[in-house]
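> call design_seq(struct)
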């Protein structure tokens, strides 16, 4: 007992000495970090450095960046400048929320607005010969770039720098000319794919989930976790139209989980992370005439649902709760109409649909277990559970292919994608672009002939497969490609991909 006591006292003394030896982390931040990351930690030339922004970085990764810097960026190595206890104190401090909750109000949003090209000032035709409907945009997370690919020649057309850490699917205008991008740090950008130029940018929040673009091309809606807001922008030049505080019927604020465009309903849908409500914001009436009020309609739920899939008419939401349960919400009736038998950690957001035996089925991966769950979209029963190599993130198909492609990127088999026959629901093949290296996220060419897979490594690639023979046909080097998005498949709302 005495020995343990002595050890505890020694440990407390060592910690106290170490803490005493370290300089004040706030002062270290002001001296070494504030110039690039902002005095308020909200980001400037460098990204925001708040607990929410660092959530996805493992402790060892943060240490590594502080010690060694970040290659190909302006982030320097501090190992030679700061002592070890200072670096540790700084890392701890960065993970601690500031005393005052960061604000990002309408004034800050407006002040961030940049118009690169006034609406109508660029030519309304593509600068290049490629089919503008069969372009892909590829998010390269390694050095924060985007590559525009010609889907016929399977070759890059252009590559440009993006804001730090884009996340979620880029959204296209209906004619495919413009693509809208969102970064985790709250930047929304509008890019003209025909002129290969940015049109406008604006920072809508400190920590943003994603954006949706209204089918009539008038609005962009962004959902934030910090602050707790929805931000409505004019799609033409991204100027601010309105900030909507996200507060439940009992007054409690909620983070936004994601926003969606329910095109057939002419409305936006917002999934909320902290309250048992779903919001619908109609932007046009049934005949498509604009509704200027854009007032949220609240559907009260009996559980928090924050991961959504929609049927093709957007009448039903399939929603998953954090406890693993699933529900079907009828948006017309504004209530739950069925329970889903899902279990595990379903990732409904990555769901796809197709016809099987004359019925529409939906399938989605599971973040916790190696399986694909297939659900009947008429009576919501689970048709089958297809075992896979391991937990995966994405599932993809196309109207012109008999197969669905699933990754296992959160398992030791992260290097292999499995190919599932959509009728027999059996795994019929697999591809391994590079043994031991993460491969995930598939998108098909416009005609469904080729499947493009991301080899998600710094010296990675887009690996193109013949979707019928599963043979590799091309490898395009890229810097940690994550998602890729085909203009035609997105703008026609293919059932095999996300919308
Ligand atoms: Fe995503 C889309 C949420 C982590 C890559 N991800 C989405 C969407 C949501 C979401 C709500 C749909 C938005 C849209 O398309 O408009 N993602 C989440 C999370 O909650 C989660 C688990 C934790 C988080 O930190 O946010 C998460 N996501 C990741 C990753 O770790 C991934 C693999 C790498 C990364 O870049 O962060 C990742 N998410 C993606 C991609 C899409 C996406 C590539 C677009 C898929 C598509 O094809 O449409």
């Amino acid at each position: 007992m005495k020995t343990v006591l002595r050890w505890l006292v020694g440990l407390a003394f060592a910690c106290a000495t170490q803490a005493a030896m370290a300089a004040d982390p706030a002062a270290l931040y002001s001296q070494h970090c504030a110039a690039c990351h902002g005095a308020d930690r909200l980001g400037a030339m460098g990204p925001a450095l708040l607990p929410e922004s660092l959530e996805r970085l493992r402790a060892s990764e943060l240490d590594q960046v502080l010690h060694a810097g970040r290659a190909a960026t302006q982030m320097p190595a501090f190992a030679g400048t700061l002592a070890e206890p200072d670096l540790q104190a700084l890392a701890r401090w960065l993970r601690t929320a500031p005393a005052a909750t960061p604000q990002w109000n309408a004034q800050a949003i407006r002040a961030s607005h940049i118009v690169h090209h006034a609406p109508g000032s660029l030519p309304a035709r593509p600068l290049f010969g490629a089919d503008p409907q069969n372009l892909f945009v590829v998010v390269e997370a390694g050095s924060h770039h985007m590559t525009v690919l010609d889907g016929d020649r399977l070759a890059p057309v252009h590559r440009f720098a993006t804001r730090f850490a884009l996340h979620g699917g880029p959204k296209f205008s209906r004619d495919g000319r413009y693509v809208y991008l969102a970064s985790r740090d709250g930047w929304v950008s509008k890019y003209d794919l025909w002129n290969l130029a940015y049109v406008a940018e604006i920072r809508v929040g400190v920590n943003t989930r994603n954006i949706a673009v209204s089918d009539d091309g008038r609005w962009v809606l962004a959902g934030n976790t910090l602050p707790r807001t929805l931000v409505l922008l004019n799609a033409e030049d991204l100027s601010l139209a309105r900030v909507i505080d996200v507060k439940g019927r009992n007054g409690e604020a909620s983070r936004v989980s994601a926003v969606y465009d329910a095109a057939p309903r002419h409305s936006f849908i917002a999934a909320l992370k902290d309250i048992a409500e779903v919001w619908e914001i109609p932007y046009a009436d049934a005949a498509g005439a604009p509704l200027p009020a854009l007032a949220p309609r609240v559907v009260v739920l009996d559980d928090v649902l924050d991961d959504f899939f929609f049927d093709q008419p957007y009448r039903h939401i399939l929603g998953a709760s954090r406890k693993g349960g699933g529900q079907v919400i009828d948006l017309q009736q504004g209530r739950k109409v069925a329970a889903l038998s899902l279990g595990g950690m379903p990732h409904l957001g990555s769901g796809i649909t197709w016809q099987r035996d004359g019925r529409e089925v939906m399938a989605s991966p599971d973040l916790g277990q190696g399986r694909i769950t297939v659900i009947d979209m008429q009576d919501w029963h689970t048709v089958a559970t297809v075992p896979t190599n391991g937990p995966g993130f994405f599932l993809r198909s196309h109207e012109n292919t008999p197969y669905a492609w699933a990754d296992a990127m959160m398992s030791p088999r992260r290097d292999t994608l499995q190919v599932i026959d959509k009728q027999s629901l059996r795994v019929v093949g697999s591809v391994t672009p590079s043994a031991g290296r993460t491969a995930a996220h598939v998108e098909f060419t416009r005609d469904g002939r080729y499947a493009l897979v991301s080899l998600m490594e710094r010296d990675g690639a887009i690996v193109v497969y013949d979707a019928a023979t599963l043979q590799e046909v091309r490898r395009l080097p890229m810097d940690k490609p994550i998602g890729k998005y085909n203009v035609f498949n997105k703008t026609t709302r293919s059932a095999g991909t996300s919308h």
